[in-house]
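Re: the request from the purification team.
They wanted to know what the chain is likely to look like in 3D before they choose a buffer screen. I agreed to run a prediction and write the result into the notebook, where they can find it.
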Amino acid sequence: MAGEGREREAGGEARTGSRARPVPYRGGGFRPRRVVWVGPVVFALLIALAEWGTRAGWIGTLTLPRPSDVALTLWEMALSGRLWLHLGPSLMRLFVGAAIGVSAGVAVGLVIGLFTYARAALVPLVAALFPIPKIALLPLFVIWFGIDEMSKYALIAFGTFTPTVVATYGAVDNVDRTLIRMGQSFGLSWGSIVRKIVLPGAMPGILSGLRVSLAIAVILLVAAEMLGAEYGIGAFILEAGSLYDLERLFAGVVILSALGVALSFLIGVAERRLLGWRS
């Protein structure tokens, strides 16, 4: 009898093992896969199309310069040092202004998202400031802070402040309240809930808002440098446009585009490091 029981158990285990199938992991949900090569290929195709169109005569050189001529202009600027003469001040202005605006915007956005009276007091003020075209305030900042660097810092900081505030308190509002109530039921303190639940849950929205804020910062940087700046990418583009030097003008545009790509790459790196828990 014991031998028959063991045989039945062994047979049952064999049948169960033959039916068992591994369940595929679906935790990623709709998370997109990283395909690194597609972006550079698209850029290369567009540049090749523009080069072919200008050489074949389909595109006039007064409308669009040859990409090869723009690349040669950039190379000559790099060798002569003129590129770094303009790029250095622009990076400093962008870094200082955006750092002030983003840090203040995240702080105020968190205060609005976490405290009721702060929300009641500050949301109408932010709503009044947000639609104002920041470029229109540049003459006012020049009057307040002078035509030197402070007015440029102030314009970039103010331009990045309001969208960062809106993105931050919106991200805090979108944190799953079930997780907060769960933390409260486990007896977590208010600070622990903010640090372990609210901030990680709001981080995707904050970083998405940071992409928009930094793009606005680049736009305002160019506008500020076109007024009263001797060196900078904006001043370089303004000078090239006044001389109708399309190669140099497009070289400046390419520098701004590369700056935007670099900022997007850095935010992507931050997202992968800070939001690894989503995968």
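For the purification team: The mean pLDDT is 86.
Please add any questions underneath this entry.
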